[in-house]
């Protein structure tokens, strides 16, 4: 089911392209290989624990939550109940595990209600019971239960400010954990003494379980002081209730060594590296030398693009660090400090900056996608860059540098017909970037 949905999404993406070439087909085949390698159906069954003596309660949150819940239902040998929350339009039909949809990246009332219901599900369990927690990227916004004294609107205000600030995912989730009633290990503490087994799909650089979806079932090494420092670093003035709550620091998140989390087991079942290695294997089969630059690349999207452009030029000109034909691959999560009024996520920002840096270099084409199928808050997964992108833009009167200055990668690639729309993939291991270098 999950693999089929992924293939359908990529086939739909191909249909959105206005120009069909073998090189374009390779870009999308690499993306499909990467996605298929990190679906729930591919990765989750082997990680399932043994059924308990008592009840099995399934909970979860994230963009992959529905696919993970469906896979659990398909492979679990005994009775179970539960509830997971996923992003709008990311659901799948399930039988025993309820799937609730909510807003991402800014939380809404549906996410708050789902979080309350999940808290109710893990109350009053015994040591004979199992809580199976399915966590993936996006879970932090979707599992939206504010700490006492803070309103949902307070959390929304802070979330919006952080998204525009250029803060990285670790910084954003540190703040989120300290404004939440369930994140930063609090959910696992509520489930004690039941056994808690968490299966994670990582969307964060470094695959730190305490950062993925703000770590609702793992100890939190950060503090209220860290959260205050992050807001100060980015010049964010929070609502008065948030400022007062962070300053009081009255109820810290569970820390490493907390006895309530001592028996919790956490397994990361899919990572950005898994996706990159699958794409590299396909590139090798197609006669290209793959170069994986890293699975945890961070920084401003446009600056990361400049570095990628320099490496691509070195391959094309000198055959270093790989001979032509070659494929450059990278993952991680870049950031965009929004200064303009345009539309677009970090992947189209990366590609637009890459286009400017490459300046129509022959033989080099690229694509960048968010593996969940949604680049930022738009309807595209990403876009495709070709050697003639700037020439076609100029013919339409489009100034690439002006669009970049306005953070308007979406409008630029839409005008060219080069956006790639997949719809939700129901997995999420963050960004997937690929540059194909052929003989000029």
UniProtKB/TrEMBL annotation:
It holds the Pfam family DUF4147. The keyword Repeat does not apply. Residues 327-431 form the MOFRL domain. Keywords: ATP-binding, Kinase, Nucleotide-binding, Transferase. InterPro entries: GK-like_C_sf, GK_N_sf, MOFRL, MOFRL_assoc_dom, MOFRL_protein. Residues 27-247 form the MOFRL-associated domain. GO terms for molecular function: ATP binding; glycerate kinase activity. GO terms for cellular component: cytoplasm. This is Hydroxypyruvate reductase. It comes from Azospirillum thiophilum.
């Amino acid at each position: 089911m999950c693999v089929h949905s992924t293939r359908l999404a990529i086939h739909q993406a191909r249909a959105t392209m206005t120009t069909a070439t073998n090189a374009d087909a390779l870009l999308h085949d690499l993306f499909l290989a990467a996605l298929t390698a990190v679906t729930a159906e591919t990765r989750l069954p082997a990680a399932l624990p043994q059924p308990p003596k008592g009840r099995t309660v399934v909970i979860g949150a994230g963009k992959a939550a529905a696919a993970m819940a469906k896979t659990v239902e398909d492979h679990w040998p005994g009775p179970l109940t539960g509830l997971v929350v996923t992003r709008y339009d990311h659901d799948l039909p399930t039988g025993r595990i309820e799937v609730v949809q909510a807003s991402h990246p800014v939380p809404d009332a549906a996410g708050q209600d789902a979080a309350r219901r999940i808290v109710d599900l893990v109350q009053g369990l015994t040591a004979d019971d199992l809580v199976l927690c399915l966590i993936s990227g996006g879970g932090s916004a979707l599992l939206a239960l504010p700490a006492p004294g803070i309103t949902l609107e307070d959390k929304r205000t802070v979330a919006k400010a952080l998204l525009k600030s250029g803060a990285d995912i670790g910084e954003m989730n540190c703040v989120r954990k300290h404004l939440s009633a369930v994140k930063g290990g609090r959910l696992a503490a509520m489930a004690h003494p039941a056994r808690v087994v968490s299966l994670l799909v990582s969307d964060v650089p470094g695959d730190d379980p305490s950062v993925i979806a703000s770590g609702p079932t793992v100890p939190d090494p950060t503090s209220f002081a860290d959260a205050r420092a992050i807001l100060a670093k980015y010049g964010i003035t929070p609502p008065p209730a948030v400022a007062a709550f962070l300053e009081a620091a009255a109820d810290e998140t569970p820390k490493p060594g907390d006895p309530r989390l001592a028996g919790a087991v956490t397994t990361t079942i899919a990572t950005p590296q898994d996706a990159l290695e699958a794409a590299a294997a396909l590139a090798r089969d197609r006669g290209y030398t793959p170069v994986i630059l890293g699975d945890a690349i961070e920084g401003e999207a446009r600056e990361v693009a400049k570095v990628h452009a320099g490496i691509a030029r070195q391959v094309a000109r000198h055959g270093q660090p790989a001979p032509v034909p070659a494929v450059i691959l990278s993952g991680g999560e870049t950031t965009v400090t929004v200064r303009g009024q345009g539309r677009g996520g970090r992947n189209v920002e990366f590609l637009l900056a890459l286009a400017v840096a490459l300046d129509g270099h022959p033989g080099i084409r690229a694509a960048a996608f968010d593996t969940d199928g949604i680049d930022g808050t738009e309807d595209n997964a990403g876009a495709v860059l070709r050697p003639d992108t700037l020439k076609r833009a100029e013919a339409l009167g489009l100034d690439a540098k002006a669009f970049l200055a306005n953070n308007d990668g979406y409008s630029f690639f839409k005008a060219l017909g080069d956006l790639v729309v997949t719809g939700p993939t129901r997995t999420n291991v963050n960004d997937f970037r690929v540059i194909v270098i052929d003989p000029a």
